[in-house]
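Page 42, continued from yesterday. The earlier attempt failed because a stray header line got pasted into the input along with the sequence. Redoing it now with the clean sequence only.
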Amino acid sequence: MGISDLKRTYKVNLSNRLIDFAVNTIKFLSTIPYKKEHDVFRYQLSKAATSIGANYEKSQACTKREFHAKISICLREVRETNFWYKVIDKLNLGEGQRRKNLLRESHELKLILGSIESKESKTRTNKIKE
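This time it went through. Structure tokens are written below.
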């Protein structure tokens, strides 16, 4: 189910979506075969995917300036997560359909957070001009 499907049925709560993404990523990692060379995927992906939601939550209780900084961190982390999912996908590791769904979700989250970051940057730029 993509964001367009969700939008039709109910309002999307980004915070819950990021929690679900982190949990689903951790569950997915258990489907990757346990080999030493796969340890980097488990470590980096679990770290980046869980950091997105944690930083988003922090952004909800910040000043405007801190909000922008936290959203920028979220965007960097989701981009890293998307990178690792692309690598894992090219290597065909883990459960296939779950991997494809999480790759798509990481891409959609990257677009959402990129949009938030872009709007925040424009707002800050307009205030500086005033």
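Notes: Helices lie at 3-9, 14-29, 39-59, 64-90, 96-129.
Reminder to self: strip header lines before submitting.
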